[in-house]
Amino acid sequence: QRLQTAVETFRTQSKFGPALEGLELEKSGKFLEAMDKYTSVLDQAPDTAWVLVRRAYCLSKAGDPAGAKADLKRAIRLTPETATDRVTLAWAKATCPFLEFRDGAGAVSLAKRALQDEPLVQTYGILASGYAEMGDFRRAQETSMLALSKSPTDGEKKDLAAKLELFREKKSIQGDWLPKATPVGKGG
């Protein structure tokens, strides 16, 4: 109960509160609404790498790859200041569909630093994705197995098992960044 109260206080009083709302909207597939929340945070804190990456993801899901690339370019130029910045940038470098931003070694480096700050199961999964992007599928599998030994939630177990299967097939992660529907072409 106290945690819920603390989260609600943070959501309503912090400049990052709307970003938390954006994450919840993303889970519901409401990418345009989430994008608006991220934009309101970026209006106040324009150099927040993790929020830029989340907005880039939403732009991509909404069918605006140019906007997504612009936000990714900005985010990657910034020095990641928090564990959240590091893990979110690592995730983008390991999974985004735009080859010019994929960087397995960069993802591994960022994920390792994030793990020093906060050893979360999700971050081990991102580290494994970075190894796979580098073509080091053995380390990707080992890291996935390590993550599975860290008491993951059921959702994390399912995600890690799917990643592990891909890594055994020597495939890297192709993140779910693209719109579900094919955009209709403009003009004739």
Structural notes for this entry:
The protein is mostly helical and 188 residues long. The chain has two domains: 1-78, Tetratricopeptide repeat domain (Serine Threonine Protein Phosphatase 5, Tetratricopeptide repeat); 89-174, Alpha Horseshoe (Serine Threonine Protein Phosphatase 5, Tetratricopeptide repeat). The protein is built from ten helices and no strands. The longest helix is centred in the C-terminal third of the chain and has 15 residues, at 154-168. The radius of gyration is 17 Å and the shape is globular. It starts with a helix and ends in a 20-residue tail after the last helix.
Helical coverage, percent range = 55-70%
- Count of β-strands: 0
What percent strand? Answer: under 5%
Number of domains: 2
Secondary structure layout:
Elements: H1 2-13, H2 17-27, H3 31-44, H4 49-61, H5 65-77, H6 83-95, H7 104-117, H8 121-134, H9 137-148, H10 154-168
Question: What would the keywords be for this entry?
Answer:
single chain; 188 residues; mainly alpha; Serine Threonine Protein Phosphatase 5, Tetratricopeptide repeat; globular
